[in-house]
Amino acid sequence: MITTSELTFRYDEGDVALKNIQLDLNKGNIIGIIGVNGSGKSTLFMNMVGVLKPTSGAVLYNNEPIKYDKKSLRELRKKVGIVFQDPDKQIFYSKVYEDVAFALRNIGLDEDEIKRRVSASLKSVGAIEFKDKPVHFLSHGQKKRVAIASVLAMKNEVILFDEPTAGLDPKSVKAIAKIIVDISKLGTKVVISSHDMDLIYELCDYIYVLDKGSIICSGKTEEVFTEGDIMNEVGLAEPWLVKVHKNMHFPLFRKEEDLYVYFNEGGR
Ligand SMILES: Nc1ncnc2c1ncn2[C@@H]1O[C@H](COP(=O)(O)OP(=O)(O)OP(=O)(O)O)[C@@H](O)[C@H]1O
Ligand SMILES: [Mg+2]
Hints:
This protein is an alpha/beta fold. It has helices at about 40-50, 70-80, 95-105, 110-125, 140-150, 170-185, 195-205, 220-225, 230-235, 240-250, 255-265; strands spanning about 1-10, 15-25, 30-35, 55-60, 65, 80-85, 160, 190-195, 205-210, 215-220.
């Protein structure tokens, strides 16, 4: 599994974007990485998949520092997938089908298996109806869903989702949330960054809070959101169920439905 050891990263012409990051993906099954704009989330994700190389410190996979030659990176990509924040970074081919099939051909799967995987992953994100469309005809949200499909089709051990639901409509957000829960249940390790704290709270079991390139807090989801006032300190919103808990003295519920059941059963 991915860990990092004192990972520091500086862009060529910029300040230090990540400072001494100690991360351990063994800590949870769906891990949230949260922080305001510019706190370093995408930079951290790109270091974790070897797109960027730490200035000092290391990224490790199963306790071995990852290597940056082409062959090693290709092997790493079979295990670790990333959905980039910007879908235009992910999508290269003209037609949707070809785009999702591209990486699968690269790892040498036969065409029947490719067909099955492409159809299943496009269906799961609600993108099957535009499988024959040129990618540049799609809207931002549609491209985002295709980008997610192309990563799901790889069946990686770890998938990093950088802002997977930004710009998506509520129905698509729900679909992506369900996919994340489903793949996690099947054993895929998931890492998500998002500004949607309700989504993070609902999905994640462990959280890292990034602030100006440093991890300033980490722990189990309930603890990070309820102990102290860390969300206000870093400029993030509190999940609404946490607000209900703090301001109305309701128990802390993890799901909206749990609050309604409690209320309807006369818990208060
Ligand atoms: N290509 C680049 N060259 C130089 N500096 C960069 C580059 N990309 C990002 N940075 C800087 O690195 C820091 C972290 O940026 P990063 O994109 O990782 O933040 P983020 O947490 O993903 O933000 P957002 O929520 O807006 O996606 C910022 O200060 C940013 O200005
Ligand atoms: Mg980002």
